Amino acid sequence: MTIKETPLASSAISTIKTKFGNLYFFENFLITEIFEGMIVGKKEFLKIFDLCSDNFGSNKPFGIVSHRLYPYSVNLFELIPISDKFDSVVANAVVAYTDLSVKNFELEKRLLNFKGKFFNNMDSAITWVKKEIKKSN
């Protein structure tokens, strides 16, 4: 079930549909839903971080919840050089439903050097992200 099909969608401050997925902005975190079969690389991540800067400001810590409903690829070779963009992300939660998604996330976390955690449900992921944001202030 996508975010727009849940009550959570009504509390989003902003919803942006891009060529690669839907982005749901809340007070201090973002939920991403990347479309099936996409390859997410530097261009897509820079777009996400530009939108985060627009929504959260340039110095405000925020969290990201990646709702991995569909299989897609992350081009780590393009992201490693821009991994410093992750500095303002105090928590990166992944909600996934397959073992492959979990393994991919662990590899991304290790190579991009960010604080992240895996969850199998959205409520737990959001609770953790909010807690991590509060701890960072």
Architecture blueprint of SSEs:
Elements (H helix, E strand, L loop, with lengths): L13 E4 L3 E5 L3 E6 L4 E2 L1 H15 L5 E7 L4 E2 L1 H4 L9 E8 L2 H14 L3 E4 L2 H15 L1
Parallel strand pairs: 3-5, 4-6, 5-7, 7-8
Antiparallel strand pairs: 1-2, 2-3
Give the helix proportion (percent range).
Answer: 25-40%
In this structure, how is the largest beta sheet organized?
A: 6 strands, mixed
Number of helices: 4
Integer-rounded radius of gyration: 14 Å
Order of the strands making up the biggest sheet: 1-2-3-5-7-8
Taking the alpha carbons of the first and last residues, their distance comes to 32 Å
The total count of strands amounts to 8
**Outline, from the CA principal axes?**
globular
Derived structural class: alpha/beta
**Average pLDDT, all residues:** 92
Q: What share of the residues does DSSP label as strand, in percent?
A: 25-35%
The low-pLDDT segments are none
The H-and-E topology, N to C, reads as: EEEEHEEHEHEH
Any overview of this molecule?
The longest helix has 15 residues, at 42-56. This protein has helices at residues 42-56, 76-79, 99-112, 122-136; strands spanning 14-17, 21-25, 29-34, 39-40, 62-68, 73-74, 89-96, 116-119. The radius of gyration is 14 Å and the shape is globular. Strand 7, helix 3 and strand 8 (116-119) form a beta-alpha-beta unit. It is built from 4 helices and 8 strands. The protein has 137 residues and is an alpha/beta fold. Helices cover 35% and strands 28% of the residues.
